[in-house]
Design a protein that fits this description.
Low-confidence stretches: none
Number of helices: 0
Helix content: under 10%
Number of strands: 12
Radius of gyration: 14 Å
Largest sheet: 6 strands, parallel
Mean pLDDT: 87
């Protein structure tokens, strides 16, 4: 289950702002999934550094976003969440040109699989995977 489920080849879309109106009504898997070939996607302005958005206390959301194959040119900005179940993101090594700026997840258990090519992370908060990324 996702808040935003992008179909194959979705392009030129911006998703700005999100709140969960009722406690523990968050999606289980991720806030967003991008299927094959999604390009020029922006996710921004979720939570704040002082008041991160809770990903739930029961059946927490796993990730902020996950992407399929061949996704390009994504920008994730000013996303602050807490109590994620698994991490900030996961992606395929056929994806390229992702930028994350000021994205913070849960430090305790937020392990990302960062196989995306040409990924830039600026002002991040979370825990990276301890396995080699090829």
């Amino acid at each position: 289950m996702y808040v935003w489920n992008l179909l194959s080849n979705t392009i030129n879309s911006t998703f700005s702002g999100l709140t969960m109106p009722v406690t523990n009504t968050q999606p289980y898997t991720a806030l967003m999934i991008g299927a094959t070939g999604c390009a020029n996607i922006k996710i921004r302005n979720i939570g704040t550094r002082v008041a991160p958005m809770s990903m739930g206390s029961v059946n927490n959301t796993g990730l902020i976003y996950t992407v399929g194959t061949g996704c390009t040119d994504w920008k994730i900005q000013r996303v602050y969440v807490e109590t994620t179940r698994t991490g900030i993101m996961t992606g395929d090594n056929s994806c390229t040109r992702f930028t994350e700026e000021n994205v913070f997840g849960d430090y305790a258990d937020a392990v990302d699989v960062m196989a995306i090519l040409n990924m830039q992370r600026k002002g991040m908060g979370g825990t990276g995977a301890l396995t080699a990324q090829v």
